[in-house]
Write a structure and sequence with these properties.
There is one protein chain. This protein is of the alpha/beta class and 247 residues long. The protein has one domain. The chain has 7 helices and 12 strands. The strands form 2 sheets. The chain has a 7-stranded mixed sheet, covered by helices on one side. Strands 5-6-7-9-8 form a 5-stranded mixed sheet, with helices on one face. Strand 10 and strand 11 form a beta hairpin. The longest helix is centred in the N-terminal third of the chain and has 18 residues. 35% of the residues are buried.
Length: 247
Amino acid sequence: MKEKGETRILLLTDIHAPYHDKQALKLAIKFARKKEIDEVIVSELPDLYKVSSWLKNPDTMPFYQELEEVKQVARQIASAFPGKKFTYLSGNHEERITKYLWRHGEHLAGIDAFAPQALLGITELGWEWVDNKERLAKNQPVLQRGELTFLHGHEIKMGWGAVNIAKIMYERAGKNVIMGHFHRVQEWVVRKIDDKFSGCWSVGCLCDLHPEYNPHNNWIHGFAIIHLFEGGAFSVENRKIIEGKVL
């Protein structure tokens, strides 16, 4: 049961379609549909393997097919929450399109039809597109809901070898943050001298946990539901998915 004035936000991040975990995504959607969600924030829906700068396996699907599968997953998510507000938070994988154009098609860069949001079908769905990195470069505010800042996680530099990523991100951002990118479930919460609390939440991924390029890792499936209250206060359900169960 919602509190008066409460808004609930679902955060789905690091899906990496078409190389996503279909079961994990279904579990996250099924769980969230029971939670009276008001807004869905999706971050890093595609993998975009074929336009990455990494050495690529030629046996993987062609780029056009990858884009079509990404659009199918976007429509799957949209149909699960009809009539709700959707916000798309761009990550480092979406940058692969932009960087590919800079390297191989500079004359096409800047044309709306070749922008990531157009190629991924986000414009067609009518979702709001947010690029925090671009906003920071222009000294503009990043995505905020109440007193909680939403980052993908790549906007502030941090090594992948870091252990307590939530603590490091909190110290570098200097405010309440929720993020994906690192595919790990963590939180760092501090009580300040005025008895107020703040912190950082790292949310799990929904991608394949055993990709060819990194078959053994410390990633974990997960998603988050944020409860936003009048005045900007919030609470975070930082959910894990382990052995087919939402915990």
